[in-house]
Design brief:
about 500 residues; alpha+beta; two-stranded parallel ribbon; globular; binds adenosine monophosphate; binds magnesium ion
């Protein structure tokens, strides 16, 4: 490690030091990263921790409140076992290749074997400048850190693959965005943070040796079954096919819960098919198929209904990068195209589950397409609609049971016509109301991280309006998001329709 610009104290006694650290990524050659320490933040404080994430690596959540944990989690100290490094990658940003990106404000600390036998990498995000910071300051603000923390844990609880979030720490250190904000660090966890862009970096630099090294490391650690595809190009084609399939299932999960990522650049696509790099994401409120959650995305490249096609496009970026290993353009394209069938099957299964349908009929696609048009035309709330739909009775209309969904449509007659066909469909498979409702409520969440819910928690945490900082809303929201399918009256406020001011919230890449 070079002599640090900022001296970082080494803590002898930290709950983090008690973990058994390893760093397989740090054993890759130096072309993959730069070793460097974090840049300390002054007087860091504890903001929040995820008990579920902490338990994955055998940490008591309360131990993360100790100064001996807060300091290293803020990058203001190190501990024995930490091996901090920033990884390099590249990627296509809004369709344009950028030859060098990388962990511009993140540092990998190393990896810890979890109770589940899984090796979990821990990464600080917002821990200062690195050689890959370009024009950035290496920092993250409290606002976006709270959003990433909450959404990581929310997505996991929804059953959607994602990087996890262990904790947030903050500091009064000023960070300049559109306004002056304050700094925070999110500690993220994932088996690997390798992105499609990690491969693109070596391909475009024509460093085929590193490219092969990376692909081999990923296959051996995460896709060992690909070795069964023989010698030579086989395992790399198998890897690409598997990544395409995982990505397809991921996107089907997003579409199902109405999640818009906002910045689906190829550097924000995980090689493990995880949701990664939460920025200006959003969950749909009123359903608009072309919803663009990122104010900076002026052309709507990453609109809700574009997400599947963009994921497929990003797989082509990955496929192209792997051609020196797969050695066959047509076979590479075919491996990327595994996305198409896998996505079709996955979204079909998601929609059938959301509708509570246990069987498949030829007319189902048309029934679903009509519903999507209806939801779009009426801007019906995505989450309220699906949750409320479980109350419909198969036998026929019932004003009381129907109201929760029917009232979401300005055009009641159009809804009634669709609902009549849906009920007929349910009767054809002898659907049992209570049994179907229970099934539907396990896939249609009652609570998602709507923008305004995050915003309320952020305003309290920042102490807007001259109030003292208050992190209790972050904690309460995390508890609700950890059980998104439960009907818990404690969290009725989170399940309510969004207030009028929610539609005025603007999110950009600034974080
Ligand atoms: P993103 O669009 O957030 O995925 O970021 C794209 C690239 O910009 C990544 O390489 C980030 O590490 C880098 N980056 C974003 N914000 C900052 C920042 N404030 N300081 C340094 N690098 C940043
Ligand atoms: Mg990113």
């Amino acid at each position: 490690m070079n002599a640090p610009e900022h001296p970082v104290p080494l803590l002898a006694d930290s709950p983090l030091a008690a973990l058994a650290w390893d760093n397989p990524f740090g054993r890759l050659p130096g072309t993959f990263y730069t070793r460097l320490p974090p840049t300390p933040l002054p007087e860091p404080y504890f903001v929040a921790a995820s008990p579920a994430a902490a338990s994955l690596i055998g940490l008591a959540p309360d131990s993360l409140r100790l100064p001996s944990a807060v300091l290293p989690l803020a990058g203001s100290a190190l501990f024995d076992g930490a091996d901090p490094l920033a990884a390099v990658y590249a990627g296509h940003q809004f369709g344009v290749y950028v030859p060098q990106l990388g962990d511009g404000r993140a540092l990998l600390l190393g990896a810890v074997r979890g109770a589940d036998g899984q090796l979990w990498e821990l990464q600080l995000k917002g821990s200062g400048r690195t050689p890959y910071s370009r024009m950035g300051d290496g920092r993250a603000v409290l606002r976006s850190s709270i959003r990433e923390f909450l959404c990581s844990e929310a997505m996991h609880a929804l059953g959607i693959p994602t990087t996890r979030a262990l904790a947030i720490t903050g500091s009064d250190y000023p960070v300049f965005r559109e306004n002056v904000e304050t700094a925070a660090v999110v500690t993220r966890m994932a088996p690997s943070f390798v992105r499609f862009g990690s491969f693109e970096y070596f391909f475009w630099r024509q460093d085929h040796e590193s490219l092969r090294r990376l692909a081999d490391a990923v296959i051996d650690a995460f896709y060992p079954e690909c070795r069964a595809a023989g010698q030579g190009a086989g395992p790399y084609l198998a890897l690409l096919r598997e990544v395409a399939r995982r990505t397809a299932r991921l996107i089907a999960g997003w579409q199902g819960v109405g999640f818009c990522h906002g910045v689906m650049n190829s550097d924000n696509m995980s090689i493990l098919g995880l949701t990664i790099d939460y920025g200006p994401f959003g969950f749909l409120d009123g359903f608009d198929a072309g919803h663009v959650c990122n104010h900076s995305d002026t052309h709507g490249r990453y609109a809700y209904d574009q997400q599947p096609a963009i994921a497929h496009w990003n797989l082509y970026c990955l496929g192209q990068a792997l051609i020196p290993l797969t050695e066959d353009v047509d076979a590479t394209r075919a491996a990327c195209d595994a996305f198409v069938d896998e996505y079709a099957g996955a979204i079909d299964a998601v929609m059938h589950a959301k509708l509570g349908l246990a069987t498949v009929e030829p007319g189902d696609q048309a029934l679903i397409a009509r519903l999507m048009q209806l939801l779009h035309a009426n801007r019906a709330d995505w989450t309220l609609f699906w949750r409320g739909l479980s109350r419909l009775r198969a036998a026929g209309p019932d004003p009381e049971a129907d109201a929760a969904v029917r009232d979401l449509f300005a055009d009641r007659a159009a809804f009634d016509a669709w609902a009549a066909d849906y009920r007929a469909r349910l009767r054809r498979e002898a659907s049992h109301d209570a049994e179907r409702a229970a099934r539907m409520n396990r896939v249609n969440p009652r609570i998602v991280l709507r923008n305004h819910l995050a915003e309320i928690a952020i305003r309290k945490a920042r102490g807007d309006g001259g109030k003292p900082r208050d992190f209790s809303e972050v904690e309460r929201l995390l508890r609700a998001l950890a059980r998104p399918y439960d009907d818990d009256p404690e969290f009725d406020d989170y399940a309510a329709p969004p207030p009028d001011w929610a539609s005025g919230l603007v999110l950009s890449c600034s974080s």
